[in-house]
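Supplementary Text 2. Reproducibility record for the structural model of the 169-residue chain.

All settings were left at their defaults, and a single model was retained for analysis rather than an ensemble. We include the record here because the model underlies the residue-level annotations in Supplementary Table 4.
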Amino acid sequence: MIRSVVLEQYYEIDPKDSWVVAACEKNIPIICPAWEDCTTGNIFTAHVIRGEYDPHMVIQGVEVMMFLVDWYKKNAPGVGFFQIGGGTAGDFPICCVPMMEQDLGWEGTPLWAYFCQISDSTTSYGSYSGAVPNEKITWGKLAPDTPKFIVESDATIVAPLIFAYVLGW
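Retained model, structure tokens:
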């Protein structure tokens, strides 16, 4: 959507100050799985029911995973995983690596090079906010020596600060 410029009329900040535009320019995907399970999904569904939108104008979960696998194959090794929030936000996309190794049988698939999560909920084994990094090792997502970081704070504050630092703003 960023590349299509269809949203430019709605920009509220200069695009040079947008981490979403920066990610697009660097070809870094922002994966938002299960977006249908939120207010945006409800609004979109209402438009589809009224016949205003085609339900296929947004790719769905299986297609998102296929995109992620293709992207990962082209960019790994050395690709890290930066999770914002818990639950499906992290559990869905991080699974592309063990899926390639275990379900597709692609032996030697490189694991994620690093893992960082921002969540305002304490992670625990199988909790809504996601598993602690060491549990991800047992699932074939991370290696024991993978650099792992958890920031327990408000992601709407912390993520932009981290992105600004990384981008040198």
